[in-house]
Amino acid sequence: MSLPTQLASTTSWLEDVAGAGLLYSPSLLTTSASSLVICLACCSNIVKCKAASYNNGTGVCTCFDGTQSMVTRHGNRLWNRQFDGFTYIAQLDWLILLITDTKRKNADAESFCGTMGARLAVLDTDEKLNYLIGLHDFPDDTSIYVGATDKQTEGLYLWSTGANLTTNWLPGEPNSFRVEEDCVVVLNTGFNDFPCEEKANFVCELG
Ligand SMILES: [Ca+2]
Ligand SMILES: [Ca+2]
After folding, report:
1. pLDDT at 46
2. 80-206, what's its fold?
3. Residue ranges per domain, the chain?
């Protein structure tokens, strides 16, 4: 059991249209259910379950935890379980929470994510960056803190996982435009180095 216990009671689900027609495995449970609601209720009882697929035609209900393999399965529809506001993206096996209704300094944003057992999101693949900026509620012309910094060595940007951040910078960035720009935000389509003391929106992930 790896998920924080405060998330275990959450029971809301959101359909993931991009995942329609796919079957993910290995499954935690595969069963027959007479309706979608029964399928989702069944999967809600499994603490580790992050998503469920249901096939209206066959009544096959599958609850699963990961994306180790997926095959096409006609008629399947996919639902992602919502963990206290976090959205689970099955294709990336990624749980994120985008905060756009409050702005915090970088350290305070990191702490806020930490109170939920999360951290500022590590966008270390093109797929994760593209998913985030493709969200319909991703705001235009707004800086969103992510989990990278060059505090240790000026100009060497590292994700909190230790991986290098070298791609997807906006044109001309990183530029240390203001005296100290040691934190990183997503702005529109790429990364910008940004003063850590300035308040910004942010995105958390459950690592
Ligand atoms: Ca810097
Ligand atoms: Ca900059």
Report:
1. 86
2. Mannose-Binding Protein A; Chain A (3.10.100)
3. 23-74, 80-206
As residues whose CB is below 5 A from the ion ligand 1, the structure lists 150, 176, 181-182
β-pair partners for 23 = 71
- Nearest ligand to residue 183 Cα: 1
User: For 50, which DSSP code?
Assistant: -
Q: Ligand 1 mean position to 181 CA, how many Å?
A: 4
- Quote the pTM value: 0.73
Q: Strand, helix or coil at 2?
A: coil
Six-digit token string for 177: 């435009």
Q: Which ligand is nearest to the CA of 179?
A: 1
pLDDT in tens, 115-149: 888 899 999 999 999 999 999 889 999 999 999 99
> pLDDT per residue over 90-106, tens digit each?
888 888 999 999 999 99
Backbone angles phi, psi at 94, to 5 degrees: -140, 130
